[in-house]
Amino acid sequence: MTPRRRASAVVAAVMLTAVLAAAGTAHAGRPCDDAPLSASAVERGLALAERTRAALDASGATVVLLARAGQDLSAYRLRWSHLGIAYRDGDGADAPWRVLHKLNHCGTADAALYRQGLGPFFLDSPFRYEAAFAPLAPALAAQLRPLLQNNARGAQLHEARYNMLAYPWATQYQQSNQWAIETLAMAALGAEAGMASQPVTRRQAQGWLQARDYQPTVLQLGPMTRLGARATRANVAFDDHPNDQRFADRIATVTVDSVFAWLPRTGLGGAVVEVR
Fold first, then answer.
1. What is the DSSP letter of 165?
2. Would you say the C-alpha torsion 116, 209, 56, 36 has a positive or negative sign?
């Protein structure tokens, strides 16, 4: 068994039971690579995890949105590719950090939620060995942390049908960054009068995000680009996008960069901290 497959087995062992899927390697929207991780890649990934842990500890935060640079998205003027929700799993200064995030199964149209430590989170052959995080406002963090620690509640808004370019205001599919901010919205809705004891739907979470002026990234993708992506990638679809936007080559989707711009503007989070 290769180191990559051994790591995948460990991840699968702690996968959320509410969204249990077949064990195997998973990536944030990328095809799987069975090649074993090199010693250098492991060393660099774990070193980034340790630098990130130190920065998280120094921030005083208990819940953050944590990003990594898994792919080169510079052609779209984006720096970060994948978002998870990191939280301190306990109240003491020595309590470990955990990351709950959504991963696509090897470029397929399926995904599941995973709970990992910081080390495994960065052992995914990133494009850049850098990280960034946005601390959440204390009141929001207090609502979100117990939700993240509960398997069923953390998976409440998870949709297994994965689309790397899912439309932010539809529920047919869901991508990784979209799950993260919809779950954030669910926690905020749960704190509002009359919602604490009621299940929150994805539509309600999206309505909350729209009411607080979340602005998704709009990519300019022409018809040949869309056709090529749809024909060659099982995890890319466009049929959830409104026709008027799709045929105008405007593909809106949730990106880390747009979330990082939105959080401090609304007071829901603090300034982004970069770890290099």
1. T
2. positive
